[in-house]
Structure prediction request, 420 residues.
Amino acid sequence: MRRTVVTGMGLVCPVGNSVPQAWSALVQGKSGIDTVPRWRDGRWQGKQLAVTVGGEVKDFRPEEWVQPAKDIRRMDRFIQLALAASQQAWDQAGFPQRLTDEAGNRAGTVVGVGLLGMDLLLKTHEVLLEQGPDRVSPFLVPGMIANLAPGHLSMRHNLRGANWSVASACASGTHAIGEALMHIQHGEADVMLAGGAESVMHPLAVAGFHSMRALCASKNESPARASQPFDRERDGFVMGEGAGLLVLEEYEHAKRRGADILAELVGYGFSSDAHHITAPAPRGEGAQRAMRGALAMAQMSPEDVDYMNAHGTSTPYNDTSETQAIHAVFGACARKLQLSSTKSMTGHLLGAAGGVEAVFSIQALRQSELPPTINYHTPDPECDLDYIPNEARACAIETAMSNSFGFGGANAVLLFRRVP
Prediction:
């Protein structure tokens, strides 16, 4: 099996618009969750949204990443975020901006997107209603469909191999990285640009998730405290946006060109609950199989895992189910495992979560520091693991697992290892 390493990372997310900026905020326990003014101030049929907190990407200037500037209005924000994160990763990997055709034939991209370009779609729907069908932009469809995120990356860097998008809800970004890994393992590519992107910070999405009773609606006056994974007082997730991309490369290919190897991607597991449209399977049975799959690919045992970036959404069922799954897979090692939910600071980035959290997992390996789960104050008897509460922990680790579980029973898990 061909070894696969990470040679570039990039992200934009609620705690920062670069890997160094976001990592600094994480280890300081700084939340990127705040009041979203347009949610708080807006009115719809005379009524206000019940949820006014979210994890927005702040101070993002698309003109720094999208050229020519006229293209900005021709693409939804999730594509803009993907372009920013991917450019950071590509630059760190040290490739020329555009590969030769020969190199590009052995390179590809897979990007996970949970939903489509909701903001562009709904703004254009308003144009349809107010101005008529002749005023609908010809860029609507290419500006909002999920596969135009990897499409733009392939055009930007001349990636002439795989070019596709994964849509598996909150597991999308992790699935994308795992599937990119398999392209390299099976000899179909030497280089892959993979991760996740999402931006659905629209009132309609908020209203939809709130009607499911999935969002935290009790902390509008204290937004930084709204996401509290594994705490007994948790009552819903906080919606966020962002993008996280990795450059994956076949090990010998990276060595030949003298690339700086950041980590090795050694395991990928996936499964389906086949149980319910939103609720996890009892005792996280599907999550168990995904974690075991990642361990099996890596030829590792549970005791070999040092740190886990948990899915940890801050919803009552998910956090309990994930804890039960960890107990089932790790057995006696579960209480020794160090884990945290960085969603306590970023909120839940949906399809982008897996990409962003893969970056955080690799940073934990490289920096020998584990990010905390903030807002953890009241232990839950059903969530009884070491969640690294409230303060980062200095700890040299060799392996890190990243979990992502989505609606429809989609489960995906990645396992990274330090490269000496």
Remarks:
- The chain has a mean pLDDT of 97.
- The CA atoms of residues 127 and 136 lie 7 Å apart.
